[in-house]
Design a protein that fits this description.
This protein is an alpha/beta fold and 227 residues long. It has helices at 13-20, 31-43, 76-87, 105-109, 122-135, 160-164, 176-179, 185-202; strands at residues 23-27, 47-51, 92-96, 114-117, 139-145, 148-154, 211-216, 221-226.
Length: 227
């Protein structure tokens, strides 16, 4: 298909078909999630589940790709689906307009090839890690704040988030509220998360598994911490 012609130097025909047949769940359709879903849709991931029970507000306009002045107050997941139907009508987008929690996490995440964390709170991130492990699904974690971001890929029973967010920590939110989120950091971290998803799906390349990529754009530092 001509749509995917520019993928073909980086991906084989078989790998493009594999992406077309893959199912990825993104939890969060805001700053990170909007860009992640956009890139997965454009590269041709065939089945995308977008989970978010929140609505857009004016503070989202500085960084959230899907937000605009005419959809303030509207569902983030449903507006994301509308945009993706324009971007790539050949794939299937399922919008889940509820928040993921302990009562629904297993049922919402099951049957996916990869789960992507595009959230801003630690409790739900850890819940995704637990559920993904139970369901034997790899997950990709990303977080942002100010000029900074981090990405890691977590396979079942790796429990990498326990290293990042120890059990005795009293912090429940990420650093976004404290440091803010300028427009340039979400697409960068989202791009790295998407690259990890693609590498999982096509089973090629070096993953950030048991490694955490720490990004500091203020000082132009990209460091990998092995755990």
């Amino acid at each position: 298909m001509k749509r995917y012609l520019r993928n073909m130097k980086a991906l084989s025909t078989g790998e493009i078909k594999k992406l077309n047949d893959s199912k990825v769940c993104i939890v969060g359709c805001g700053g990170l999630g909007g860009y992640i879903i956009e890139m997965l849709a454009r590269i041709g991931v065939g089945f995308i589940t977008a989970i978010d029970g929140d609505v857009f507000d004016e503070t989202n306009l500085n960084r959230q790709l899907v937000s605009h002045i005419k959809n303030i107050g509207m569902s983030k997941s449903e507006e994301t689906k509308k945009r993706m139907e324009l971007v790539n009508p050949h794939i299937h987008i399922e919008a889940i307009n509820i928040m993921l929690d302990e009562s629904n996490s297993n049922s919402l995440l099951k049957d996916h090839d990869v789960v992507v964390d595009a959230l801003d709170n630690i409790k739900t991130r850890k819940l995704i890690q637990t559920s993904s492990s139970k369901l034997n699904i790899p997950m990709v974690h990303g977080a942002i704040g100010g000029f900074y971001g981090q990405v890691t890929t977590i396979f079942p029973n790796d429990n990498t988030l326990d290293f990042l967010y120890p059990k005795d920590s009293k912090v429940e939110k990420g650093i976004e509220k404290e440091l803010g989120n300028p427009s340039f950091i979400p697409p960068l971290i989202a791009s790295i998360e998407v690259a990890e998803v693609i590498k999982i799906l096509i089973n090629r390349g070096d993953l950030l598994r048991k490694k955490i990529l720490m990004v500091d754009l203020l000082e132009n530092n990209f460091d990998i911490i092995c755990i």
